[in-house]
Design brief:
By secondary structure, the chain is an alpha+beta fold. The chain has a domain of 94 residues: Thiol Ester Dehydrase, Chain A (Roll). Helix content is 21%, strand content 34%. A 5-stranded antiparallel beta sheet has the order 1-3-4-5-2, with helices on one face. Strand 4 and strand 5 form a beta hairpin.
Length: 154
């Protein structure tokens, strides 16, 4: 599998039925690694090409090892992990994230989380998860809360 294909959400595994979810249930972990080029293309695609994502010299002057990954990408990985767990019928209600450290390209990042709340809202089951992104040294680089709605089935 090449690096680009890691980003295709194919939903080949069966989604976790929301009836089986309880607070404390683990979100299946997700591993992601992007190259510097992929990171730069991501920032261009979202029109957020800040200097910290392409200027090594400026980043080293800040005390970092080099360019850093965009925070929106890290938050998106948290969202991806939750929607992969719940399947393509899931509808995003809210995402919030906070960067806690810098993250670098070409490093394997580990996305984990757990269900923090499950509630009913009419014909929808609302699932809220707390998520974390850790770098290869197990440093927490992002914390997130993701809330997704899934149609309730009988």
């Amino acid at each position: 599998m090449n690096a680009t294909s890691k980003f295709v959400s194919d939903y080949t595994s069966q989604p976790t039925p929301v009836a089986d979810l309880q607070p404390g249930a683990a979100v299946p972990p997700l591993d992601r690694c992007v190259s510097r080029v992929q990171s730069t293309l991501y920032t261009a695609a979202i029109r957020f090409a800040h200097q910290v994502h392409f200027d090594d010299e400026m980043c080293r002057a800040q005390g970092w090892k080099g360019v850093i990954l965009p925070g929106f990408l890290l938050g998106n990985w948290c969202l991806e992990a939750v929607t992969r767990m719940l399947g393509p019928q899931s509808v995003v209600r809210a995402v919030s994230f906070r960067l806690t450290s810098v993250a670098y390209p070409d490093a394997l990042h580990h996305i984990t989380g757990e269900v923090s709340k499950v509630e009913q809202d009419g014909d929808w089951t609302i699932v809220t998860c707390t998520m974390a992104v850790n770098d290869p040294d197990e440093t927490l680089v992002t914390k997130a809360t993701v809330t997704v709605a899934v149609p309730t089935t009988e």
